[in-house]
Structures are given as C-alpha cells and as structure tokens.
Amino acid sequence: MHYDFTTLPNGLRIISQDMPMLRSLSVGVWVDTGSRDETPVEAGASHFLEHLLFKGSEEWPAQRISETFDAMGARHNAFTSKEYTAYWARMRDVDLPTGMEILAEMVQRPAFRQEEIDLERGVVLEEINMNEDDPPDVAHEQFVETLWGSHPLAPPILGTKDSITEMTRDTVSGYWARRYTPRSCVIAVAGRVDHDDLVALVEKHWDTWEGEAIDRPLTTPEYESGIGVVRRDTEQAHLVFGGPGLKRDDERRFALIVADHVLGGGMSSRLFREIRENRGLAYAVHSFRSPFADSGSNAVYVGTTPDQTAEVLKLVRGELDKMMDSGITEDELARARGNVQGSLAISLEDADSRMNRLGRNEITGLEHLSVDEIVARVDAVTLDDVVEAAGAAYGGPYVLGATGPFDVEDLNEFVQ
C-alpha cells in the first residue's frame, strides 16, 4: 500500500494516498483523545466537543459551515470512540482548499459560544435518551461497564445525563485546550490528491498551531466475571456475552480474525448456523472484537425471546469451548482466508474506507500494511495458531450484559 507521509515542524502529521481514477477525496482530522482520557467531571467531553466544533469559529459560524459544505455537494460528519475522535468530509478534489480551511477553523479556533453550548447540550441529552430507549445499546453498555469496572475504558462515550447537564463552558474548553494539539492530530486524505499540494495547503492553515504532545497512561485491567442487567419487560432479550480479549497490536490478532470469522463473522459461521439456521432461536447473532491500546474484549451478541435465553447462552458457551478445545477445520481456515482477501479488497474500493484506514492506523500507532501484507499474515495462520488465539480471547472470565425481563440472579450460572 503506497502512501505519502509528512510531519510538520509543529508535530502535525499528514498522510495521504492518491487514487487518480477518482474526482473526489475524503479528508479526516484524527485526534488522539476519547472517553478514556476524561476525568470524572469531564465525562462525555470528547463526544460533546465533536458536536460543538461544528458550531464553528468566529470567522466560520455553524450556518456558514453547513451552507458551504452543501454548496459543494460535500458530506461531512464526525465520530468519537474511547481512544480517538475524527472529523471528516468527502468532496470533489477541487474543493479541498475550502474544506481544509473549514476543518482548520473548527479544530483550532472553536468559538464555544455559551448559547450554542446550551443548545447542543440538549441535543446530546436527546442522544443519550435515544440510546437508553434502544435495548441492544443498553445491553452492550452493560457489558462494557461490567467488563471494565473501574478501568478508564468503562465509562460511556456519551457521558451521563448528570455529567452533560453539569458540564460548563470552562470544562469543555479546558478539555479541548489540553487534548487538542498538533502533536496529537493526524490529517489523513485519500482520493485524487497530490501530496505536495496537500502539505502546502495544510501548512497554510495549520502551521501556526502550537502545543505539546499529550500523555495517555496505560493500565492493566483487573477482570472478574460479572453480570450487568437492565430489567425491562421486552418481547426480546438482548444478550452480550464475552470477556477480555487481545490488545490492538498483539501479533495473535491475525489468528483471532480467523477464529472470530468462523465463530460468528457471517452467515456461514458456527453461531449463525447453530443458533439461527438449525434451531431458529434468534434473528440476529454475531461475534465482534474491540481492541484497545492496553487490552481488548471479545463478545457475542444475540437477540432472542426471554424463555429461550438459557438455551441460547448454553449454545454460545458450547461453541466457545469447542473453538478453544479443537479450533477449526482446514475448510473453515480456507474460507476465512478468502473472506479476509475479499472483504479487504471491497473495503478499499472507495476513498472513505482508505482515509479511515490511514487515519486510524496512524493515530493508534499500527503498521500501515498493504492488502498483500495482511493477506500474507492471515495465510501464515495455522490451525494451532487459531487454538492459541481462541484460548487467549475466549477463555474468560465471562461477562454478560443483558436487557430483558430478568434479574442478575436469573443469569448467574452462565458466567461461572
């Protein structure tokens, strides 16, 4: 995977990949800060900032930003995770100078107008309400909070109603001043772009920005089995079952990609076939990984009727045990390798996916591997490697997050 890379004297990193067959590009500003970096009084500040920066600067207020992007036919948005925040826009290549000016104003010179903070506070509170009304989201949050306990990865990205309600202008602007610096940011661009022209453009709008590198203490989590339940008289029980997994740069991650695909990564996976196809116990069932800098998690999500919860959880535990005991077959390994090759090729067909890959890898410190390099590492995975990775990722202690008409004592047996 060819890419171009430059670091400005102020520490701002620029990474790009030219796709000359396109007439558009995707640009992202990635910031090395997320919910794990917040103090208790700042809970939800990373996500609140994501909203507030679109209110713009003194020169570029919110209405001017939205009207300018709309006039270009551009798409723009942002997202916040536990470890980073990203602001992105997709536009024609000839519109990059305007798009870069807007992003530079938003990130470096937010106005933080009190009336806009108060209005956006209401928007974030409604977003929290929406998530609380979504049973699968509640089950996932219960899993996360129970798994991580007192670790910085535990608090919800959105914050809480109390923390957002009480957050002051000084708190959110102070968080921005502390966490947003050129040395904590990456500008990633993919599409029709000349790197030298991009660097000149970034220098024009970003080279006077100053600030030191930010620190993120990493701590080893302490895990124990547990259950987090929100009791609701719903027609369907929503279950997230899993435990601690591999951290982001663990070399066993390639074997785990294979194991996870076979376990619950698609319609041919063991969980889908056994729970949905053979028994008709669920409509939605899948496994997923959440790797971080100092740890990670692996889990299975299932939505089923409450009276089938026990049967479903026993089946999930059984499939995890089989994966750890005997691994996978040669046929399953071959299908997983083919899936990696195909999904990677498809994902890199558009500029958004390539920009996200460049930005995410750079901000998290992962290698920028080409498709061929990733395929080679997956092809090198052996059946024994899968068993080892499965044992590390699926061996517990087990945690269950759930929403449905039951209490903790109704589910205790499944995490023992």
The H-and-E topology, N to C, reads as EEEHHEEHHHHHEHEEHHEEHHHHHE
Approximate shape: globular
Q: How large, in whole angstroms, is the Cα Rg?
A: 23 Å
CATH architecture of the largest domain: 2-Layer Sandwich
Mean pLDDT comes to 96
Q: How many β-strand stretches?
A: 11
CATH superfamily of the largest domain: Metalloenzyme, LuxS/M16 peptidase-like
Order of neighbouring strands in the sheet with most strands: 1-2-6-3-5-4
* Largest pleated sheet: 6 strands, mixed
What is the first-to-last residue Cα distance?
45 Å
Strand content: 15-25%
So what's the CATH class of the largest domain?
A: Alpha Beta
CATH overall fold name of the largest domain:
Cytochrome Bc1 Complex, Chain A, domain 1
Structure annotation, total helices: 15
Extract low-pLDDT stretches: none
| Count of separate structural domains | 2
Query: Roughly how much helix do the residues carry, as a percent range?
Result: 40-55%
Which structural class is indicated by helix and strand composition? alpha+beta
Q: What is the secondary structure topology, with strand pairs?
A:
Layout: E1 4-7, E2 13-18, E3 24-31, H1 45-52, H2 62-72, E4 75-80, E5 85-92, H3 96-108, H4 114-132, H5 135-148, H6 161-166, H7 169-179, E6 185-191, H8 195-206, E7 226-231, E8 237-244, H9 253-264, H10 270-278, E9 285-291, E10 296-304, H11 309-326, H12 330-347, H13 351-364, H14 371-379, H15 383-394, E11 399-404
Parallel strand pairs: 2-6, 7-11
Antiparallel strand pairs: 1-2, 3-5, 3-6, 4-5, 8-10, 8-11, 9-10
Written account of the structure:
The longest helix is centred in the N-terminal third of the chain and has 19 residues, at 114-132. The protein has two domains: 4-206, 2-Layer Sandwich (Cytochrome Bc1 Complex, Chain A, domain 1); 226-415, 2-Layer Sandwich (Cytochrome Bc1 Complex, Chain A, domain 1), CATH 3.30.830.10. The chain is built from 15 helices and eleven strands. By secondary structure, it is of the alpha+beta class. 45% of the residues are buried. The strands form two sheets. It has a six-stranded mixed beta sheet with strand order 1-2-6-3-5-4, sandwiched between helices. A five-stranded mixed beta sheet has the order 7-11-8-10-9. A hairpin with a 4-residue loop joins β4 and β5. α11 (309-326) packs across α15 (383-394).
